[in-house]
Design a protein that fits this description.
single chain, mainly beta, Porin, nine-stranded antiparallel sheet, four-stranded antiparallel sheet, 17 strands, 8% helix, 55% strand
Length: 249
C-alpha cells in the first residue's frame, strides 16, 4: 500500500466522520467491549553478522559457497485479521487485547562477489534471495492512552508487548532432503516483541472506527542457527514490523 493510498484513506475517513452522528454505538461507556480488525503489515530483519560473514563457506569436501558481498533484508508485505477486547480502566485509559492471525513472509538477500553467476533457485546473477515463510498467531496486550474527545474525534497512543507463535507446517520448513545450496533459513517458533503506536478514534452513528499505525521489534534473537551457507554468516536476527490497522468497535 503506497503512502498516497494511505493519505486518501485517512482523508476519506475524516470526511465521513465529520458528517456522522457522534454516538459511536456507545462503546466508550461500556466497561468491556469487542470488535475486529484488518491489518496491513510490512516486515524486515535487523541483521547482526558474524565477524567472518564474508568468508567463503567450506565443508569437509571443500568449497561450497563463494565470498559474500552483502546481506540485507528488504521490506516485505503481508496481511492479518483479528479481534479486539477492550477493557475500560478510566476516562482516558483502556487495556486492549488484540489477537490476530498474520501472514507475513520475510526475505534475506545474499549478494555474492560481483560477476558470479549462481546456479541455484531464486538467484539472479550473484544475488540470491531466501524466503522465510511465516504464519503467525499474535497475542498483543497494551495500554491505550486517549485524549479527551473532540466532536467525532479522539487521538490516542499505545504501548505494550506481543507474544507470537509460528504455526506454519513443519513440512514447509523440512529441508533435510534439500541440496546443500538450497537449505532454508529458519526462525524460532515463538517471538516476544515490544510495541508502540498512535491512532485515531472516529465516531459514527453505530460504531467506532480506529485507524492505527504501530511499530514492533522483537526482544529476542529470532534466528534458529544451523550449519549451512545461509545461516552460518548470521549472528542474530531481530524482527521488525510496521502495521497499519483498521479496527471496528
Amino acid at each position: 500500500m503506497s503512502k498516497r493510498s494511505l493519505l486518501v484513506i485517512f482523508i476519506l475517513f475524516f470526511r465521513l466522520a465529520a458528517f456522522a452522528q457522534n454516538w459511536g454505538g456507545g462503546v466508550d461507556d461500556e466497561y468491556l467491549h469487542f470488535g475486529f480488525g484488518f491489518h496491513y503489515i510490512s516486515s524486515d530483519y535487523k541483521i547482526y553478522k558474524q565477524t567472518s560473514w564474508r568468508n567463503p563457506y567450506f565443508d569437509e569436501n571443500g568449497l561450497v559457497a563463494d565470498s559474500l558481498y552483502s546481506i540485507s533484508s528488504p521490506a516485505s508485505t503481508g496481511f492479518g485479521i483479528g479481534f479486539v477486547s477492550d477493557l475500560r480502566l478510566g476516562e482516558n485509559v483502556n487495556l486492549r487485547f488484540t489477537p490476530s492471525l498474520a501472514f507475513t513472509d520475510r526475505f534475506l538477500n545474499y549478494q555474492y562477489r560481483p560477476g558470479l553467476v549462481l546456479d541455484v533457485p531464486n538467484a539472479i546473477g550473484s544475488l540470491l534471495q531466501k524466503r522465510v515463510q511465516a504464519t503467525m498467531v499474535d497475542f498483543p496486550i497494551g495500554i491505550k492512552l486517549k485524549s479527551d474527545r473532540r466532536n467525532n474525534f479522539r487521538a490516542y497512543m499505545l504501548g505494550g508487548i506481543k507474544y507470537s507463535m509460528d504455526i506454519i507446517s513443519k513440512k514447509k520448513t523440512d529441508d533435510s532432503d534439500f541440496p546443500f545450496l538450497e537449505k532454508l533459513v529458519k526462525n524460532k517458533s515463538t517471538i516476544l516483541s515490544y510495541e508502540a503506536g498512535i491512532g485515531l478514534d472516529l465516531y459514527f452513528e453505530f460504531f467506532k472506527l480506529s485507524p492505527e499505525l504501530k511499530l514492533s521489534n522483537s526482544f529476542n534473537n529470532v534466528l534458529k542457527p544451523e550449519k549451512h551457507p545461509y545461516s552460518t554468516p548470521l549472528d542474530r536476527l531481530f524482527l521488525r514490523n510496521v502495521q497499519f490497522s483498521l479496527y471496528f468497535e
